Amino acid sequence: MRASYPPLSRKITNALMLALTGLCTVLVLSVLLTILGYLFWKGASSLNIDFFTKNPAPVGQSGGGVKNAMVGTLKLLTLASAIGVPIGLLGGIYLSEFAGGWSAFTIRYTTDLLNGVPSVVMGIFVYTLVVLPMHHFSTLAGGIALGIMMIPIALRSTEDFLRAVPRSLREGGLALGASKSETIFTIVIPAAIYGIITGILLDIARVAGETAPLLFTAFGNLFDSRGWMHPTASLPVVIYNYAISPYDEWHRQAWAAGFVLLSGLLAVSVISRLILARGKKLSHG
Amino acid sequence: MAKAALVIPEIPFQSRGLDRKQTWWERLRKGDEVVHLITLAGGWSILVITALLVQHLWVYSRLSRHAFGWHFLVDSTWDPVNGVFGAWPFVYGTVVTSLLALAISIPIGLGSAIFLAELAPRKLSNALTFLIELLAAVPSVIYGLIGIFLLIPVLFTVVPYFQKYFGWIPVFNGTFYGVSYFSASIVLSIMVVPFIISISREVLIAVPVSQREAMMALGATKWDVTWRAVVPYARQGIMGSIFLSLARALGETMAVTMVIGNVAQVSTSLMAPGYTIAAVIANEFTEATGDLYLHALIELGLVLFAVTMIFNALARLLMLTMKGHEVVG
User: Fold this and answer.
1) How many whole angstroms separate alpha carbon A66 and alpha carbon B202?
2) For residue A11, which residues of chain B lie inside 8 Å, CB to CB?
3) Between chains, do B131 and A24 touch, taking CB under 8 Å as contact?
C-alpha cells in the first residue's frame, strides 16, 4: 500500500510538469545562446580596421567605419556620468545615512518610478528641456538625457551597498570621536566602495545601449562632432539607422557595431562582477 | 566663560537645551550639517526632475489635449497633413503586442523560475540565472537587429506552414509580410522574460521551508508542493514581476519599431503589420512639422508615461508588501 502512494497519475503529472520547467529553462538559455552566437558570428566577420579608424563612407560606396560614433558614444557617456554619478552618489548617501520616514520613502519610491520611465519618454523630456530652447540637437542634450537615466540606478545601488555596511562599523567610528560626516567618508564609504563602483559600472553599461532618448537629443551625424553643442553620432543610433536602411554594406556595419557595443557591455558586466568578488574577498579576510 | 562653567552643571535641563542649540552649530562647523544638506539636495533633485518631467509633458501636449480631448485615444485617423490626430491604432498595437508578449513569457518565465528555485542545485541555479540576466543587459536596438535579420527570416519559413492549418482562425489569417504584431510580441517576450525569471526566482527562494515541509508531510509530490504551496505563497512577488514586465513591454521602443512594420492600422490578425505608441514617437518625432503635430506626439508620450507609471507603482507596491510578508513569515 505504501509503495503505491502517491498514485501513478500524480507521479506522472509530477514528472511531466517538472520536465516542462526544465524545458522552459533550456528554451530561454538556447534563445540567449542563439542571440549571442549569431551576433558574434555575424559581427566578428564584419569587422575590419577601417571600421574603427574611418568615418562613414558616402551611400553606395563600400568601406568606411564608425569612428565618429564610437567617439560620440564615449563623449555622451562621459557627460552622462558627470551628471548621473554625483547626484546618484549624494542621493544614495542621503537615503542610507541621513533620511528617515516619509522623506526617505518618497525619494526611494520616486527613484524607482523614474527608473521605470520609458526611455523614449525621457527623450521627449530632454527634447523639450534642452533642444527646444537651444533650437538644435547637441551632444549636451544627449548626455543630459543619458545622465538623468543613470541617476536612479546609481542612487539605489549606492544606497543598497551603504546599507549593507554593518552598524557596528559606524558606531566604532563615532565612538572614536569622529563626526558623522567623518565616519561616513572615512569608514562607511570605503567599506562599500567596491559595491558602489560595480553599481556605477553596470549603470554606465545600461545607458550605453540606449537608443530612443538619443534619437531626439544627440540625433546623429555623418562626420566628427566637435565640442558639445553639435549633433553627434553614437553606436546605438548608428545600429538602428543602418539596420533599417536598404544597403547590404550598412547592414554589415550594423552587425559589426552591434558586436562592438555588446562585447563592450558584456566586458564591463563581467569586470564589475570581478571587482565585486574581489571586494568581498578583501572584506572577509 | 568661567562663570558659565560654574553655573550650568547645577541646572541640567536648561543646559541640555543650550547644548542642543550649540550642537547644531557644532555639527555645522564639523561638516555634518553641510554634508547632510548637500546629500539632501542630491536626493531631492530626483523629485525635482520627476516634477519637471511631468510638467513638461503636460505643458508641451496642451495644443493636442485642447484640440482633441479624450477622443484622442479612441479616434483612428492619424493625418498629420490635415492636422487630425487620433491615436487608436497605436494604443491598440501597444496593448496587443504587450499582452501577447506576456502571454508567451509568463508560462515560460514562471516555469524557468520554478526550475531554478526549486529543482536546480543552488550553484547551477546561480550560474544559469547570471546567464539569463545577461539577456536583460542586451540593448533593445540589438534585439531589433536580431529581429530583422534572424527572427523575421525564420518566421517567413515557419508561418506559412502554420497558416496552412490554422489560417482559418481570424487572428492568424491574412498575408504575412514578416513585420507584424506577432514578430514584435516574440521580440518583446524575449526582452521581458529575464525580469520575470529573476524576480520570481528570488521570491520563490524566499518562501519559508516550513511552507514546503507542511505540504510534503501531507504526502504531496514535488510538483504539488511547488504548485500548491510555494507558488501561491509567492504570488504577490510574481504578480509584481509581471506588472514590471508589462510596464517595460508597453514602453519598449527600438526593438518594436524595427519589427512591427509601422503601419497605422487596426487589424484583428496578429500576422498583420501595425504600430505602437513608442514606435510612432521614435519614427515621427524629429520629422514633426508644426506645433500641433509635435504636441500630439508628446501627448502620446504623456499617455505612455501615465500608463507605465501606474503599472510600475503597482509592481513596487506588490513587492513592498511582499517584503513585509517575508519579515512577518
Assistant:
1) 41
2) 221
3) no
